[in-house]
Write a structure and sequence with these properties.
By secondary structure, the protein is α/β, with parallel strands linked by helices. The protein is built from nine helices and 15 strands.
Length: 279
Amino acid sequence: MTQPIVLKIGGNDIDNPDFLAGLAAYTACLDVPAIIVHGGGKEIGALQARMGIEPRWVDGLRVTDEETLAVVEMVLCGRVNKRLVRQLVAAGIEAEGLSGADRGLLRACQLHNSQGDLGRVGEVTGVRGGVLLDMLARGITPVIAPLALGDDGEMYNVNADHAAAAIAQAVGARQIVFLTNVSAVLVDDVPQSFISEGEAQRLIDNGTIFGGMIPKVKTALHAVTLGIPQAVITDLPGLQGQAGTVFYSQQQDQQQETTINQGVFWPTASAQTGAGVAY
Ligand code: ADP
Ligand code: MG
């Protein structure tokens, strides 16, 4: 089977019908098998507001007390996951939704952060990659809500960027795409086609990279050190047009110093393929 890609779908556009239709059409024509992992931060925040819960963040990660965990589970495993699955199935994709708890797909322990207590936020400790590869081999596109099962039998909220990277590593993905609502990492409004680790830390320290972009950039950098050849931060038009911020392993950086875009793998969505992909 062709090495899969992992598509992480951010939460900002996941309730936008035009975005969903575009994503479904793109995914239906992909020439590689895909695993989809999604967030849903905006809708979690909206439901929290309706329930009178004040969202709190540490280092770009959602602090998750018991009440917040209930909201996260309802929104991600319920509404968002099923909306995504519905759209993909309607486009002819054999999409199947599952959370990290289903079949023990994602295992986690509590994530500790030096900047504060995150509550029930998990760090992925194990991924049943074989379950996902079996699904792909049967032509199924897994659509994963990033909650994970703890050794204590409890559910943990996992940042979707973190979950996507752990999954990409477990299945030997050739690329991880962080599909978000910005075309790239921006510095003074200029999209960056490449960012080194040192530069990323400087941009985080001086506040140029903030909020949800912090875990995304850190995870993209970490992903390439885990052996995933390439990580990309982009939006849907960027993915369709093959543009965004691309991260490679350090070794490749040096080799490709002057021609950084050479050898970039981009999945292509072939119009002729139509809905459904034969793996
Ligand atoms: P997602 O749901 O895709 O994970 P997030 O809201 O968590 O999205 O993170 C993306 C957001 O990060 C952008 O919408 C933007 O507001 C913010 N952001 C912070 N720093 C940057 C930056 N330097 N370049 C682009 N976006 C940034
Ligand atoms: Mg985010």
